[in-house]
Amino acid sequence: MSISAVGFEKTFQYAQMFKEGMLCTVYLSLFTVILGFMLALVLAVMRMSNFRPLRFLAMTPDGHMREEGFLAVVSRFNPISFIAAVYVEVIRATPMLVQLFIVYQVVFSKDVINLPSVTVLGFLKLNRFLPGVVALALNSGAYLSEIIRAGIQSVDGGQTEASRSLGLNQGQTMRFIVLPQAIKNILPAIGNEFVTIIKESAITYTIGVADLMAAVKAAQAGTFLVLEPLLVVAALYFCLTFPTSKIIAYFERRMRRGDRR
User: How far apart are CA 108 and CA 163, in angstroms?
Assistant: First the structure.
């Protein structure tokens, strides 16, 4: 298998499809980042909640709390944290391809959510694009939630106590004190997840999303070439991921300037 200039010329005849596929990948990544980050915040808060409706079971007749025993264990059960933990573990323990097909063939089936076959953003089929975004966001949210939770827990507890002593409520403390510091600590991990989303979006071509990999398959079928279309799409993915990683690194340096003073 050899590479030739003629092969690239034939591949570039599908330049419009590659352009649309690149735009589709950008749209997929953008919507996934937004929805996934929102879901991750909710899951992180759920995992860190202190909602224990059965706490009264550990109360002794003299008003003390049991530290050991079956009732003490049951009293510490947190249903909100449990639901979030189960979701995260299930998503992390199952393949992304399986999750994609469950969302596309079950959740967005004709019997559950029947999406119209309309075109959005100029050239994207809604009934294929939206399931791809939802599946990617559900997967990304599980991983991001653990990153965000670790970042929140890395902030010194004295920061929260100081903010509460100044009159800030729990929501204000989280918004103005904890989250800014947590995001600074986890920015490299978040940036790595964003780059991963761009690359993982390639899997959506299996349900008919017109992304970069769909353009590759069309070019390979039309030119009977294998390597040249793959090299072109690899270069396009590099053009998307490399600047993204550099932008994240730039903001990381800006946010850490105060640490060196």
Answer: 45
